[in-house]
Amino acid sequence: MISPNTIANRIRTLCRELAESNPAFVGLTFAPHDFRSLFATEIVNNGLPIHIGAALLGHLNIETTGGYVAVFNEDVVRHYQEYLARRRAVRPAEEYRSATSDEWDEFQEHFERRKVELRNCARPYGTPCQHEHACLRCPMLQVNPKMLSRLDELEEDLEARRKQAETEGWLGEIEGIDLTLQFLREKRKQALRSEQPGRSVDLGIPSFLPRP
Prior knowledge:
Blueprint: H1 4-19, H2 34-45, H3 50-57, H4 62-68, H5 73-89, H6 101-113, E1 119-121, E2 141-143, H7 148-168, H8 171-194
Helix pairs in contact: 2-3, 3-4, 7-8
């Protein structure tokens, strides 16, 4: 395991060595965190949509990623438009015709039907509910952190039902309730994580290859 201080010292040493042949590096220093900005700038400049870059960096807000990217806004828009053009070039042309009024109504109805008590179902357009509306067990359910108190109520109700099932000897019911409780607690963890602003993804510490 290499410590951040070791990496920072190694970067400073490399900058001093480069400055001997390249004056642009004289007095220049880098911090390990600077490489997140370099990574973000590189992927966006090469055409990756900035919202995907935000996911890679672990940013919940796309504006946070914009602060890492050393490009002008018009460059971001241009790269995204080029990305869309490349994607559309390989798709059938009829997919990009104007939608009929019936198709548009169906599209809007799909998103209305995705609204559930705990927040929102993330299933894609054109797909039915494949979990028989057992939302707590569905990986597509996105729980609103404001509904955590409702999860507590549901958990309390499930625990009460489990005690009754134990008393009556309903083993199949106990198994089903335990599974639902497992999904409920995982949904709670996901909702709590989504409340943490600026959460980043740990990419690990890079290792140095021996110099020749």
